[in-house]
Amino acid sequence: MIKNLLNKYNNGIHMNNINDKIPPFCLSNQDMKEICNNDFKGKWLVLYFYPKDNTPGCTLEARNFTFYEQEFKKLNTKVVGISPDSCESHRKFADKHDLTVTLLSDPEHIVLKKFGVWKPKKMYGKEFLGVIRTTYLIDPEGTILHIWNKVKVKGHIEEVIEKIKEIKNIKR
């Protein structure tokens, strides 16, 4: 079983590292509008990958990013979430929880694979492919400056904000 998952998982998978340019992508958001990586040129970008709309951890993460929206704006940073859920699911999720973050839909797992977050997981003894909660911090030129792997939601957004401030102070 795991061998079959790994073969499927390795098909089209990329690994991104600090100082790499992000791979190009275009996906639709919760309003069915196509959003591409080039739309963020000149802005800092927090790109976070999450498993599923309306689950406890994913809801808390999205609500926390929304809560800190003004802080991210002050830092010239856009926050974008990506999951395999549909645009319609994202719209309902955003409406239900008053979310202001952009949510992109990747049901074919193309961008999830490009960022190396579509991986084998195990729950209750069953193996399956799914999103590993991961956050990328990307500078205005599209370069990856920091990666948080296997994110724990509690305190994560505050860590992201502190890292942006730390990096911007170093670059000044």
The gist of it:
This protein has 172 residues and is an alpha+beta fold. It is built from six helices and nine strands.
| Name of the CATH first level | Alpha Beta
Mean pLDDT over all positions: 90
CATH superfamily: Glutaredoxin
Sheet with most strands: 7 strands, mixed
General description of the model:
Mean pLDDT is 90; it is low at 1-11. A 7-stranded mixed sheet has the order 2-1-5-4-3-8-9. The protein has a two-stranded antiparallel sheet with strand order 6-7. It has helices at 2-10, 56-67, 69-74, 87-97, 110-114, 156-171; strands spanning 26-29, 34-36, 44-49, 77-83, 102-105, 118-123, 126-131, 134-138, 144-148. It is built from 6 helices and 9 strands. Strand 8 (134-138) and strand 9 (144-148) form a beta hairpin. The chain has 172 residues and is of the alpha+beta class. The chain has one domain: Glutaredoxin (3-Layer(aba) Sandwich), CATH 3.40.30.10.
Q: What topology does this entry show?
A:
Elements lengths: L1 H9 L15 E4 L4 E3 L7 E6 L6 H12 L1 H6 L2 E7 L3 H11 L4 E4 L4 H5 L3 E6 L2 E6 L2 E5 L5 E5 L7 H16 L1
Parallel strand pairs: 3-4, 4-5
Antiparallel strand pairs: 1-2, 1-5, 3-8, 6-7, 8-9
Task: Please name the defining characteristics of this protein.
172 residues, alpha+beta, Glutaredoxin, two-stranded antiparallel sheet, 27% strand, disordered N terminus
